[in-house]
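We were asked to recover a plausible sequence for a given structure. The inputs and outputs are reproduced exactly as logged, with field labels preserved.

PROBLEM: sequence recovery
POSITIONS: 134
GIVEN STRUCTURE:
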């Protein structure tokens, strides 16, 4: 058993360590419910298929225009910095469940433009969404 002095030294060391280690950022994708995602889709005026691809981080972050990323962050009630921090490949989570004979794997990321094309977004709207400025 540790003495009171030993425990005090350990507690002091942990306290110093906690001050140095940055707190992990909350994952803004994990906190949203299905209804929240529907609202994000409506607010951005994009098909839910696009929002699902963003939620599952199947879209390459560098292909998303900053203006759209800012609109997404606002719709999700978070910051662009938090979105970017949570977009790392280590955070990819399979959000759906399927019956399959093999273990599911994360697919390759695609461009934001390709997701819009696959979702059937009209060319004019796609051009507006892909624009960097209003």
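RECOVERED SEQUENCE:
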């Amino acid at each position: 058993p540790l003495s009171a002095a030993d425990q005090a030294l350990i507690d002091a060391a942990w306290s110093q360590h906690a001050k140095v280690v940055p707190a992990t950022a909350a994952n803004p994708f994990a906190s949203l419910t299905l209804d929240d995602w529907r609202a994000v889709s409506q607010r951005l005026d994009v098909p839910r298929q696009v929002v699902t691809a963003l939620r599952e981080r199947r879209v390459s972050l560098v292909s998303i225009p900053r203006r759209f990323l800012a609109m997404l962050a606002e719709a999700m009630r978070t910051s662009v910095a938090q979105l970017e921090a949570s977009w790392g490949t280590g955070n990819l989570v399979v959000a759906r469940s399927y019956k399959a004979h093999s273990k599911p794997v994360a697919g390759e990321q695609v461009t934001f433009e390709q997701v819009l094309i696959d979702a059937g977004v009209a060319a004019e709207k796609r051009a507006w969404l892909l624009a960097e400025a209003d």
